[in-house]
Write a sequence for this structure.
């Protein structure tokens, strides 16, 4: 039953109203263009210095200062440790238009302007986390959150990274623990806030280097599942191999190298 619940959560596509970050983007774009005009250019594009980034943030009209926004982000992370306690959990930290998005969670990536924005809504997100608690299976999980910073191009977004480690000492999907020690690859996360300091968007589990760790290059819950032989039955929950077409192209390139010159 847990498997069916998770599969349902992972495949629900939802449509949402535009987020604050989308509405403010034209303002940000004008500010960015002005700052980039003063930055040093190089082959391939502009390289912004720390001073350039600070200047971008200083020009922002977003009412919450970067240091305060980072503090709010950390407060949300700490608060989420109590998310299972629905009666005492303050759900107002999430905006009513909140959406949760991960690489393969929440529906397809928009490919056209009118495509729906992917993500799980507030109620779906809370129900999913309360119906499935990874800490039961991995009680010593340590995400090692680090590198918090405010995006100079989108000053209501806080980025941060994780280097998660955990030991499988509890039941997972009704199966006994394996005792395996897991090291997940480094992952990028972000939270987008509205002007009231509520989380509008929570993005998680974007692997930065799939060659690190022992979870097959998989981040998020998928990494835990695969490394403990509980992978869900679809390709996204398996280490990357590439499509047949992509692998065929690689084979064709190798064969071409074996052919005599001019053949």
């Amino acid at each position: 039953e847990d498997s069916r619940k998770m599969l349902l959560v992972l495949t629900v596509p939802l449509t949402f109203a535009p987020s604050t970050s989308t509405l403010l983007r034209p303002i940000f774009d004008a500010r960015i263009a002005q700052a980039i005009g003063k930055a040093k250019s190089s082959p391939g594009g502009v390289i912004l210095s720390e001073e350039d980034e600070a200047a971008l943030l200083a020009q922002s009209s977003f009412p919450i200062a970067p240091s305060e926004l980072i503090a709010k982000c950390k407060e949300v992370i700490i608060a989420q440790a109590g998310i299972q306690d629905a009666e005492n959990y303050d759900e107002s930290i999430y905006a009513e238009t909140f959406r949760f998005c991960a690489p393969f969670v929440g529906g397809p990536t928009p490919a056209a302007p009118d495509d729906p924005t992917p993500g799980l809504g507030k109620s779906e997100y809370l129900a999913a986390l309360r119906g499935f608690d990874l800490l039961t299976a991995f009680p010593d999980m340590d995400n090692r959150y680090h590198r918090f910073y405010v995006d100079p191009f989108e000053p209501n977004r806080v980025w941060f990274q994780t280097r998660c480690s955990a030991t499988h000492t509890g039941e997972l999907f009704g199966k006994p623990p394996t005792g395996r020690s897991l090291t997940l690859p480094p992952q990028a996360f972000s939270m987008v806030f509205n002007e009231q300091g509520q989380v509008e968007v929570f993005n998680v589990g974007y692997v930065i280097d799939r060659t690190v760790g022992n979870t097959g290059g998989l981040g998020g819950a998928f990494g835990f599942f695969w490394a403990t032989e509980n992978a869900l039955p679809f390709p996204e929950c398996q280490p990357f191999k590439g499509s047949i077409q992509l692998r065929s192209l690689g084979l064709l390139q190798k064969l071409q190298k074996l052919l005599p010159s001019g053949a």
Observations:
- The domain at 2-258 is CATH 3.10.450.50 (Nuclear Transport Factor 2; Chain: A,).
- The helical segments are 2-10, 20-36, 50-58, 66-79, 122-131, 134-137, 220-227, 244-258.
- Strands lie at 40-42, 45-47, 94-101, 120-121, 146-150, 157-162, 165-167, 181-183, 187-193, 199-207.
- The mean pLDDT is 86.
